[in-house]
Write a structure and sequence with these properties.
The protein is mostly helical. Helices cover about 70% and strands about 0% of the residues. The chain has helices at about 5-10, 20-35, 40-45, 50-60, 65-70, 75-80, 85-90, 90-115, 120, 145-160, 165-185, 185-190, 195-220, 230-250, 255-275.
Length: about 280
Amino acid sequence: MDINATIIDNYARLRKSLFFMPLFLLIIIIVFLYFNDALNVYGYTTIQKRSFFAINAYLGQYPILESNFTQFGDCLIGLSLLSVFVVYGPKLWEALLSASFISAFFSILLKVIFAVPRPAAVFNPTSFLITGKILLGHNSLPSGHSITIFTTLTVIMYAFMPQRVYYKIVWFLGLTWIGFMLALSRVALGAHYPLDVVSGCIIGYLSGLLGIFFSRELKIWNWVYNKRYYPIFILLFLVFSIVLLNRIINDNLIIFYFTFICLIIALYKIITVYAKK
């Protein structure tokens, strides 16, 4: 089976109507906040106090698990795990590159616009569970990790979407559930409010869709197919490997080992293909 041909075919099937549902969900969130007088920093943080503490208390009991989960919101991890698709599914990487830039733009812009203080800057840091550094900045909304998680999952979801309706539903709901569980790690670690995560997931989904449509229509990443540019990826993945080795030494999380192995496999494959070109 030609993986890249499957990805191209699946992306070609997508329609712009897919944007309606996430935009509708964002409108629902805004309306909900409006009717609860929460379209301001005080109201936004206060209305989520109970849910934040409940989720944090429950999921925060598993700090190692959640610390691994939250790493999927790091662009380095997502790109590294999918590194082998540079060879086997370059079309996926086209969409991933576009989506990553779009998601980074949304994340930075919206954090600056809303300037919502982190939970530890609003609530007493000793009153809830915090794993890792205590974050006190005013960049809580939306969750950047959640955006990255759903951006990556959306690109993967539609790249390998099954054709039968039943399997489509299972595939969509399954990946959405996994993504949401990974994103909730931000609440578990005491870094974000629940709505930061929910809005981040929706924005990430939109970013993934935009990335797919942009790469499909604009053809700006066609060079990814050309093996003459493989040295760029070799250098990039070598840098990723060095960064991951440093994280393994400092944090020793399982996800870093697994990601490092994926990178080594991808590097071997890319170098082999480039050497034979």
